[in-house]
Specification:
alpha+beta; Endonuclease I-creI; 4-stranded antiparallel beta sheet; 6 helices; 22% strand; globular
C-alpha cells in the first residue's frame, strides 16, 4: 500500500494521539517513569491500515487496544525523536492535535536533557502533559501533589 505523507498527517489529525503517561516506578530516581507514545487506534476491520502505517514509519507495534480496536503504538524514544517529530514538523497538523504535538515535542526535549530524572523537571513535564489531550488527569494531578509535598 502506497501512502502519501500528507494523507498520513491528515489521518493523524483525526485519528492519532500524542500521549505522555506517568507511572509509579520505585526504581527510578524520582519514583516515576515518563512514557511518551504516539498512537493511532482503529477498528479491527482496518488493521491492514495500521500495518501500512507501521511500515510507513518503519516503527512501532500493532496490537489490541480494547475489544475490537487495534492500535499502532510507537514508544521508542529514539524513533519518536528522530522520525516522528521531524515528520510532523515537516507535515504540519491542522487541528488541536497540532498543539498536543508541540507539547509532546517539548516533553521529549526535556527528557533528552534528563529533566524527567529530577523532581523539578518531572513537575514541569506533568504541567505540560496536563494541557494535552482531553482525558481526565486525576492521576497526573495526584503525582504532582506528591512530588511537591513529599
Amino acid at each position: 500500500m502506497q501512502i502519501d505523507p500528507n494523507w498520513v498527517a491528515g489521518f493523524v489529525d483525526g485519528e492519532g494521539t500524542f500521549y505522555v503517561g506517568i507511572n509509579r516506578q520505585p526504581s527510578m530516581k524520582v519514583g516515576y517513569q515518563v512514557l511518551p507514545e504516539f498512537r493511532i487506534v482503529q477498528h479491527q476491520k482496518d488493521i491492514k491500515l495500521l500495518h501500512a502505517l507501521r511500515n510507513f514509519f518503519n516503527a512501532g507495534v500493532v496490537r489490541v487496544n480494547h475489544d475490537d480496536r487495534y492500535e499502532l503504538r510507537i514508544r521508542d524514544m529514539k524513533i519518536l525523536i528522530s522520525q516522528i517529530v521531524p515528520f510532523f514538523q515537516k507535515h504540519t497538523l491542522h487541528t488541536q492535535k497540532k498543539f498536543d504535538f508541540i507539547k509532546f515535542s517539548k516533553i521529549l526535549n526535556l527528557m533528552v536533557q534528563g529533566k524527567h530524572l529530577t523532581k523539578e523537571g518531572l513537575i514541569k513535564i506533568i504541567d505540560i502533559a496536563l494541557k494535552m489531550n482531553r482525558a481526565d488527569k486525576k492521576k497526573a494531578i495526584e503525582i504532582k501533589k506528591k512530588l511537591i509535598n513529599g
